[in-house]
Design goal:
It is a single chain. By secondary structure, the chain is an alpha+beta fold. Helix content is about 15%, strand content about 15%. It contains 1 helix and 4 strands, in the order E-E-H-E-E. The longest helix has 14 residues. It starts with a strand and ends in a 9-residue tail after the last strand.
Length: about 90
C-alpha cells in the first residue's frame, strides 16, 4: 500500500489491486475464443431443410417481362432470381 500526491496536493491511497485487475482482464481477453458460424439457406450441410427467413424479392419498378424471383425454398426447390434482357437497365 502506498500514498500518492494528486494534483491538488491531497494524498490518495493507491494499491496494486488496480494493476492486478487490469492484468487479469488482459489475460481474459487473450484467452477468448471465437466460435464457428455458418449461414445457410434452403439446405443444411446434412441435406435437411433450412429456413429461408430474411430473403425477399425486390424490383425497382415493374419487373420486365421474363424476369422474376422466388425467395422461398426447400432442399428440392431452390430460390432464384433472373433478369430478362428485354427491359432497360436501371441508371
Amino acid at each position: 500500500m502506498s500514498f500518492r500526491t494528486g494534483p491538488s496536493g491531497a494524498k490518495r491511497h493507491t494499491s496494486g489491486m488496480g494493476r492486478v485487475a487490469a492484468l487479469l482482464a488482459a489475460f481474459a481477453v487473450l484467452a477468448a475464443r471465437a466460435g464457428q458460424w455458418m449461414q445457410v439457406s434452403c439446405v443444411n450441410p446434412d441435406g435437411s431443410a433450412a429456413p429461408s427467413d430474411g430473403w425477399s424479392g425486390y424490383s425497382n419498378g415493374p419487373q420486365p417481362v421474363g424476369s422474376g424471383t422466388k425467395a422461398v425454398c426447400s432442399p428440392g426447390s431452390p430460390m432464384f432470381a433472373f433478369l430478362s434482357n428485354t427491359g432497360p437497365a436501371d441508371p
